[in-house]
Amino acid sequence: MITPQRRPRLAVHKFSSCDGCQLAFLNLGEPLLDLAERVDILHFAEAGPVDEAAEVDIAFIEGSVATSEDAARLRGIRERSHYVVTIGACATAGGLQALRNLNDGAAWIEGLYARPEHIDLLADSTPIAKTIKVDLELWGCPVNGEQVLGATQALLAGHLPRVDHSAVCTECKRQQTVCVMVARGTPCLGPVTSTGCGALCPQLQRDCYACYGPAVQANVSALTTYLADTGMPADEIARRLLFINNQAEPFQTAGREWQARVIQRSGGEETS
Amino acid sequence: MNDDKHTGRIHVPILARVEGEGALEVSIREGRLEDLKLRIFEPPRLFEKLLEGRSAQDVIDSVARICGICPVAYQMSAVAALEAILGITPSSWVARMRRVMYCGEWLQSHSLHIHLLAAPDFLGFDSAPAMATRHPDEVRRGLRLQGLGNAIIRTFGGRSVHPVGVCPGGFFRAPDASAMAALRARLEASRDESLALIDWVAGLPFPEDDQEFVSVSLRHERDYPITEGWIVSDRGLDIPIDDYEQHFREFQVPHSTALHALLDDRPYLVGPLARLNNNLDRLPAELRDRLEATGIRFPSRNMFHSIIARAVEMHLALNEALRLTEDYATTTAPHVEAVPRAGVGFGCTEAPRGILWHRYTLDARGLVESARIVPPTSQNQARMEEDLATALTRFGLERDDDALRLHGEMVIRNYDPCISCATHFLDFHALRG
């Protein structure tokens, strides 16, 4: 519980990840020092403090569940933390590495390691919320630093922030960014992807590749039907949906449906 | 040895201030080092497999996710390998701007390492915020330089972690003139700060710890190597990047999910110190003079001097970014179109932590058939263990556990190991002999 009697306590925990979302803190610059003056950061291995067993007000979690020991570790974190906040695509949706869930993960390990018996790796990479209750999920690969700082301040003030999950398209309109799909014919996942990034890709005149996960009420079937009608092969549609946030719905179901169409076709009747 | 024959085990269960998850285990019996293991238990993410069947652009967007601290390095090694297959020679504008973007990553990653990870050890603090209470100006200068590196990356890629601007053939969009002018003004204003940083870092108290090791880096005909070159060592190795696999071998050890690597069956060093040792003559003359004025001699055999190499490379990166954008003109053609084709290609660039080698095979549709990625930290693992054994023995195994633990951690941090990187790709190679 956050009480006025003592300084708030934070922890940043790492699971299977690239460390990029922890940089939301380490890249803050001056605000990092301000934060460190206002709160006690008890566990943040990459920044120095190591005390995984500490009781904290807010535990930030980067990374997905990937090894046989992760579930027990997570339950301990849940017990000792008032708020649990996932930061980024790995913690919130299993991450890019969850592509192994859709394939033969054991064969992948055997393909890469001479002695797979020394490798402790679960067949599936899963989001944190599959193992413990999560109070707030911040999406994105990587998570947006300002969003993390804003959420931290809201939680320290005692309330859960609202996160905008409207589509990237709405962000482009707000910024008056020219639509890459309309103006250039570039297939874009912006209509079904949550904003949060600031619509970076369309600003750079490229397609959104859905690294912030699904938007609210994402109409994936309308978009993918349009992509197919304008000439995109089924396997490419499947690949686009099954990418950074491949475990997130409705991307996963729709992606697997498009994959199944490819398999059916290569099964023999039609090729076009 | 003295009479007080020390026996015991030191176990550092979570290494702090490194990227990723590792641990150090040391066994001492009767005053002698019996066993030492740098355990890496970061779970692998099997990138080389998940790239199979993906397009060239997917590769560029995926490999960034191997490392949040050096995504540009991954994108640049990948795009070089892919362009070799696709038969694309980037324009000189693209080649220069890629080098500028890469300079941003050196600046960001090196400053993060110096200020947030390494310097607290030298000055007796356990974190940068703690160090900032006594050295506020130095820490703030470091954070500013780190922020400047991030600003360079953002200028080309929209964001500094997993930037989105790189494509086969160049960039999706060229920064406009006003964005570049604003960036250049910030760089100009920080020139003196990166020079002052070199002097500050050179004044840190360094342990005397010269060791024998082989320095491996890229080499370029004119420039300090960043985005291109061939592979050299200070023992005479001189090979094109395509021949890497004929000289270097990777193998699995039970205590690490990252492969170890050897050159001619010996450990070797990659990273800033190896790079500087091999490329002193590629520094601008004024920077070489400044380095000499510190009184610390290079090439250096003391791994603790790698923090100086990082500071030197930060100043070099800042100046390179300014030099290469001096007459900046934006372009409406920042990339050439890539046409899918089959083949094998190699890419090798100097990531902040050392050479990062990629090999891809593409099919006729331009989709990946196989991928191999050799990150710097896995190359340094064998050298790190060798260094730890020597350094801890010299330091004095009779010292108490806390002192040995701290010294061991400092030795490890000299390599700025990126454990997240090292654990994500492991190509299977049988252990010979």
UniProtKB/TrEMBL annotation, chain A:
Keyword Oxidoreductase belongs to the record: yes
SUPFAM superfamilies for this protein: HydA/Nqo6-like (SSF56770)
InterPro entries the UniProt entry points to: Hydrogenase_assoc-protein, NADH_UbQ_OxRdtase-like_20kDa, NiFe_Hase_small_N_sf
Cofactor: [3Fe-4S] cluster
Pfam hit, one: Oxidored_q6
Keyword Iron included in the entry's annotation: yes
Ranges of residues in domain NADH:ubiquinone oxidoreductase-like 20kDa subunit: 18-154
Keywords assigned: 3Fe-4S, Iron, Iron-sulfur, Metal-binding, Oxidoreductase
One term of GO molecular function: oxidoreductase activity
Name this protein carries in UniProt: Coenzyme F420-reducing hydrogenase gamma subunit
Lineage: Bacteria, Pseudomonadati, Pseudomonadota, Gammaproteobacteria, Oceanospirillales
From TrEMBL, chain B:
Family matches, as SUPFAM superfamilies: HydB/Nqo4-like
Binding site for Mg(2+): E48, I373, H424
Alphabetized PANTHER family for the sequence: COENZYME F420 HYDROGENASE, SUBUNIT ALPHA, CYTOSOLIC NIFE-HYDROGENASE, ALPHA SUBUNIT
InterPro entries: Ni-dep_hyd_lsu, Ni-dep_hyd_lsu_Ni_BS, NiFe-Hase_large
Binding site for Fe cation: C70, C421
Short name of any one Pfam family annotated for the protein: NiFeSe_Hases
Name of the protein in its database record: Coenzyme F420-reducing hydrogenase alpha subunit
Keywords: Iron, Magnesium, Metal-binding, Nickel, Oxidoreductase
PROSITE patterns, sorted: NI_HGENASE_L_2
Gene Ontology molecular functions: ferredoxin hydrogenase activity; nickel cation binding
Reported cofactor(s): Ni(2+); Fe cation
Binding residue positions for Ni(2+): C67, C70, C418
